Amino acid sequence: MPGIDGPYYLIQVRSILETGVMIYDDPPLTFYLFALFSKFLGDVYNGVIIGVSALAALSAVPIYFFVRKVTGSKLSAIASIILFIYSAYHVRLVADLMKNAVGVLFLAGFIYYLHDTAFNGYRKRSLILSIIFLTLTTLTHILDLGVAILFLILYTILIPLFQRRKRFLKSAGIMWSFLITLLFVGSMVTPFYFTDIGKGIAFAEDLLQPNPSSQTGPQLPPPREQAPPPGGQALPRRNRSDILNDRMWWAIPFLIAGAVMSGKELIEGNKQKATVLIVATTVGMLLILPFIPQKWLWRFTLMEFIPLSIIFGLILSRVKKKTIIIILCVFILTPVGIQAVQAVDSIPEKSITEEGYRDLEAMKSMVPSDSVIVVSNKGVAYWVEYLLRVETITGLSPSLDTNYENIFIISDSRIRRPLPPQTQLIYSGEEMILGKITDRLPEPPRG
Description:
This protein has 20 helices and five strands. With 447 residues, the chain is mainly α. Strands 2-1-3-5-4 form a five-stranded mixed β-sheet, with helices on one face. α13 crosses α16. The longest helix has 24 residues, at 322-345.
C-alpha cells in the first residue's frame, strides 16, 4: 500500500465489510466500490489495489467517446486516451490519491453528458445522466467536483455566447440547482459524508487570505527519519511538489497550442471544437496558476492530464493524413510513456517497512482491544490501527487517564526519542518499541 494514506483505505473498506459503515467521515463512494471489489476478490488489499486500477482505466472510456464525438475521429480519440491513461499526472494520482483517481471516472462521464446536453438540444436522458454523474463525482472527491464545476461554469458562459442556445441555460440551471441543493441538504442531513466541503472552504480562505509561511511546500506529515545505511549518509527525499514541478513544463506547450487552435477554430466557424478547446485550455491554466498556495497546487497539478488529453485529441483531428498523425503520436506519446515509468519510480513508499510490519504483528497479543495507542507518525498510526484494531492518537494528554483503561505508546527505535518516564517497556522489536503508560500523566504547566 503506497503512500501515507494507503492503510487508511484498508481500514475503511474492512469496516464496511464487517459493519456496513465507515470508521472515518469521508465521501463514501470510493470505499464502497472498493468493498465490492474486496468482496468479489476475497481480500481487502486486492480489492483496493485492483479496484483503483480498474476504475482509473475505465475513466478513459468517457474521454474516448467525448473526443470522438467532438472530432469525429477514432484515431484522435485513441491517441487522446493513451495520453490520458499514461500521463505521469494520472499515474501519480492513482498511487497517491486513490479517491481522487476514482472520481475521475465520474467526472469524465459528467463532461461527456454536459457536452451532449449543450450541443444536442434539451434531451432529458443526457440531462439526467449528467446529474447522476455529477452526484457520483460529489460523493467521491472534492477536487473532482471542483473540476466538474469549472467545466459547468465555462459551458454555462460559452454555450449561450457562441451557440445562441438559450435552451441550454435551462439545463445548466437545473444542474446548478441540483448541485447546490445536494451540497446544502447533504451537509445538513449527513455531514459524515460531506466533510470534503470543509476542504473547499479552507482552499477559498487560503486563496483569499494566503499565509506566506504555508506556501513553502505541501503540508504533509514529516517523513520518517531513517538511520543512514552502513558506511553512508541518508539520501535526501524529494517531496511531491518538487517531482511535479519537474514535469510542469510538459503542460505549457499543450495549453499554448490549445489557446492558438481555439482561436483558429473560432475564426473558421467550428464553434463546437472552439468551445471545447477554450474550456479545456482555461481549465488547464486555472489548475496551475502560480499564486495558488503550494499545499493545494500539487493536488491541482495532478488533474492536468484531463484537459491536456482533450486538447491533444482535438489538435490531432486537424491533421488529415493518418501517416502524419501516427508520426506525431509517436513523437509526443513516447516521452509520455517515459514519464509514466519515471512517475512509477517516484510513487511514495509505503509508510512502514517489512520489519516494522512484523513488529506490529507481534504486538497483537499484547494490546487489549479497549486500549488507545499513542503514535506520533500518522502513516504508521494507520498501520497500527489496521493491524492491532485499536484507536490511535498522535499525542499524550492528561485526559487520556480518564477516557481509557489502557494507554500504550509505540515508538520507532531508529529515532532516538526517549519514552515518557511513566512508561513500562513491553516489547522491543526490530524497529518498533511498545510501552505502556503505568502512572498518571502530569498536568501541563500553566501560563
